[in-house]
Design a protein that fits this description.
Length: 262
Amino acid sequence: MKVVRYQRNNEVFYGVLKGKEINPIEGELFGEFKIGSQELKISDVKLLAPIIPLDVIAIGLNYKKHADESGQSYPERPLIFLKTTSSVIGPEDKIIIPEAAPDEVDYEAELAIVIGKKAKNIEIDEVSDYILGYTCSNDVSARDCQLRIDKQWARGKSFDTFCPLGPWIETELPDPDNCKIVSRLNGKVMQDSNTSDLIFSTRELVSYCSKNFTLYPGTIIMTGTPEGVGFARKPVVFLKPGDIIEVEIEGIGILSNKVVSF
Ligand code: MG
């Protein structure tokens, strides 16, 4: 099932997408709901970020080949950081190059886990009961702030618009630890990998995070990015106004965002 969040006539709804039609969800996405009979065309609504997360937990250096390209050894445990929820945008929304750090804005294609049920101290074999689904995400990063100027990552990872999510939540992804993941910049493939290269699997991440914080429904865990990011390329590639950056994950869909100036 593909869960969308959309705006129509200035109101926001959840719905279920089938083909090009949406049936509204009646009730609570994280509780009891039924799928309404009214059908809307996807072209008649604006798709929004599929969730407004309570927390955005992100994992650094979680693909073997990305750790290699970054010149770092593999972490012994998941490397957790946070992004602000105010940085979340939806499919087709614009990524704004920030005035405070315009020069080294980079993309990171990531599989994002959407928590469906309050989770605390969950074991790996229990994790599937606590996941609503998966979506595409882009961990947009100002590398100068992240890597050189600041002592930690909060600012460089959290400028407004630095967390595109979408286009929907796929609740029936067959194997989240074996999906092709690609990013394309203006149509050119920049990252082309598979979640099978993850150092810590999606289940390990949910279990580990739940043993450190309570995960509430709607929390997002961004699972890390594969190799091919802009700062590690020779020559480096950073986002500039007019660019289109896409994240595609097999079994979910394509998240596309245009880049604009501040
Ligand atoms: Mg990342």
